[in-house]
Amino acid sequence: SGLTATGLTMIPTDPVADHIVISEVGMLDEFGSGYVEIYNPTEKRFDLSGINLWIVGENGDRTLQPLAVPFIDGYSYLLLANTDNVRGESPDGSLSSQIPASGAVILEMRGRRLDALGWGEMHEAGEGGGIPHRLVPGSSLERKPRTDCSPACVRESKLGNAVDTDNNSRDFVFHENYQSPLSSSSPRREPLRSVDRMERTILFWRSFTQWVGGLGVVVLFLAAAVSFGRAHRKMYFAEAHPILIMPSIRDTARVLWKIYAILTIAGVVILYLTSWPNSSLFDAVNHAMTGIATGGFSVRGSSFSAYGLATRLSVLLIMVWGATNFTVHEKVLRGRLNLREFFNNMEVRFMLLLIAVFALILLPSVGPVDALFQTTSALTGTGFSTADIAKWGDGPKAALVVLMMIGGSYGSTSSAIKLIRIIILAKTVHWTLKKGFLPERAVVPMKLGGHTYTEREIMEVLMYTFIYVILMFVGAGILMALGYPPMNSIFESASAQGNVGLTAGVTSAGMPLAGKISLTIQMLVGRLEILPVLALLNYAVSKVRERLRPF
Q1: CB 387 within 8 A of CB 374
Q2: Do 529 and 417 share a structural domain?
């Protein structure tokens, strides 16, 4: 999705632990025989000196367990049990207490809690409320390798159990019949590759493809072209750059790329300075590229929740830049940073108004910083995030859906319906009401921003908006048919078609193929402004009909 400038990605962003975790706890028989499995999700050997393992019983009594070995190798397991054999697996060490039906297992590092799992009546001793299931003979609680994994998926997965959201009810599954646990002699299992663990070359390539796709691959090709035909012009205007800054498309494209580069460099400087003294040039470069492209790929699995307030606020400016018509940027730069040109633009003013209004709407539900950040991210189509939207209620999600459908300015790197179309629709309502109170023969021009719109142009805007909304709900319907909740399905469909990239927890590497295909089509259709895609389909159908027509 890089070249479509969409932050929605199948690359796993599950939070992976950076320390040893409790991987599985199981009960073997009615006498409390059981086991505790510990996993090291890092590539480095983990020193166990200073690590304490506690078993907590139903009455709250804590028993300290020896760990038997001095370290755990990277991507390896440690198995402790109060029996010599667990389904053919030899434990690395023994447990001095039984596994209770209701209890907890706690890992501490030099007195600081590292990980905890609680179950049954003792579930509150765990993280995020724990798991209310009581253990019975033959059952176990096992950590997931992916957040979207079912119990069957956990059994079949060859990945390490490393997901850690600090909420046991999301991180673990309950097995009625446990399988053989793993020990230090078992084959190493790497955890799911998260964004944080990806090589920098891959991260940069992702950002670069979004940066190129942001302004439009078509513009890049046109800038190098020598001659232009009618087809080239149609493709160019489909990329939403209808105003020629220079006499030719080629010269206009070159100017746009210069402006694009200037804004990107300015973004790098701003992000680097606002992150001081913990600045990372690599982070600044990548986020400036994906921010100005309104793409949303991040080099952090937690996106911008990993950064301070100054950095979060500064990236708001970059997102707005990317969602602003580039002819406005050209006027500002040509006028030696004349900001009056920027704020005189009706799309910019409408964008800022929507951000302010919707941030106030979200404020009671999510707090001021998240409200402002997520509102800007959704409207501009960037997809950066400071919060886990999957945990939000349907009301805040619905507000973001509206913004993701609207999108940024025409002639910007944003997709979706576009601000100017919404302005035209609002003006059309006023124009229609005004005409209704005048004689039939009265001529009432529909003027907006110094331009008089014909009824045909108004109908084109209405048709585009209608088709856009219908396609979005068709995509949502497909996701609902796959079993996803209605609001989450609508949210994900709006995000994909608007090339935004925010997710309510639907999009993942493990989602059904039909869902992946549906969202992929929506990303492409949304990026290409729908009508060129429909024209292409119409052309293809007409050619097929010609071939099938009898001689």
Answers
A1: yes
A2: yes
State if pTM tops 0.85. no
Say which amino acid occupies 69: V
The structural domain count of the chain equals 2
Which residue range is the domain that position 64 belongs to?
A: 21-191
Q: How many CB atoms lie within 10 A of CB 512?
A: 14
Q: Three-class SS of residue 448?
A: strand
Is 60 exceeded by the pLDDT of residue 232?
no
Of the candidates 487, 359, 473, 498, the one whose C-alpha atom is nearest the C-alpha of residue 421 is 498
The vertex-470 CA angle with 468 and 473, nearest 5°, equals: 110
- Length of the chain equals 551
In a domain, 175, yes or no: yes
| Tokens, residue 376 | 């800007």
The region, left, alpha or beta by phi > 0 then psi within -120 to 50, assigned to residue 71 is: beta
Residues of the chain by 3-state class (helix, strand, coil), percent to 5: 50, 10, 40
Residue 525: pLDDT over 70: yes
Task: Say if residue 550 is preceded by a cis peptide, omega within 30 of 0.
Answer: no
Looking at residue 355, what DSSP letter applies?
Answer: H
| pLDDT band of 247, cuts 50, 70, 90 | low
